[in-house]
Amino acid sequence: MLADHPLYTVLLVTDLDAAHRFHHQQLGLPILERDEHRLIVASAGTHLTLSLSTVGTTDTQTQAFWRLTDLDAELDELRQRGVVIDEFDQDDLTTTNGIANVGFALAAWITDPFGNTLGLLQPIPTGK
After folding, report:
1. How far is C-alpha 66 from the geometric centre of its chain's CA atoms?
2. Cβ pair 34, 11 in contact under 8 A
3. Consecutive H or E run containing 73
4. Is the pTM of this model over 0.70?
5. How far apart are CA 56 and CA 42, in angstroms?
6. Where are the extended beta strands (E) located within 20-114?
7. CB count, 10 Å around CB of 78?
8. Which residue from 44, 50, 86, 92 lies 20 to 30 Å from 62 (Cα-Cα)?
9. What is the pairing mode between strands 117-123 and 64-67?
10. d(CA 69, CA 87)
11. Alpha-carbon Rg of the chain, whole angstroms?
12. What is the pLDDT along the chain (128 residues), one digit of tens a residue?
């Protein structure tokens, strides 16, 4: 089921203004979205998320994520395949049955055998 959904990449940055200048002004990538935590740029139908981090690339944040329409179904399938869904119980992130509400999405994470964190996000619709 994951192969049916786009895979997105996340890179860590310590300064969103500098990331904006480089990726938008110097590379010419269109800005899709920006808030206080992230900058999303486009390239040939794909997206690159530049995520604000206090420590840059030494952080252990998500390296790539899938944008899904049914997170529960995806997690059920992954569990059936023996994939362990990460659980968190921290001040800034708590999961229930592997899922956290991060404000703009319901999210879950898995860690590959090499320690790379991969995210699964189901956006929460916003009222218009």
Report:
1. 7
2. no
3. helix 71-80
4. no
5. 21
6. 31-34, 38-43, 46-52, 64-67, 100-101, 105-111
7. 18
8. 44
9. parallel
10. 21
11. 15
12. 899 998 888 888 889 999 998 889 888 889 999 999 999 999 888 898 989 988 776 657 787 788 999 999 999 999 998 999 999 999 889 999 999 999 999 999 988 876 778 899 999 988 75
At residue 53, φ and ψ (nearest 5 deg) are -140, 145
Residue 45 is given by DSSP the state: T
Q: Dihedral of the CA atoms 62, 53, 47, 96 (nearest 10)?
A: 40
Q: Tokens in use for 125?
A: 């619709």
CB distance 97 to 91 below 8 Å:
no
In DSSP terms, which residues pair with 120 in a beta bridge? 66, 108
Residue with tokens 């090499």: 114
Contacts of 32 (CB under 8 A, 6+ apart): 40, 41, 42, 47
State the Cα–Cα distance between residues 91 and 104, nearest whole angstrom: 18
Q: Which two tokens stand for residue 56?
A: 């840059």
- Report which residue type is found at 82: G
DSSP 26: I
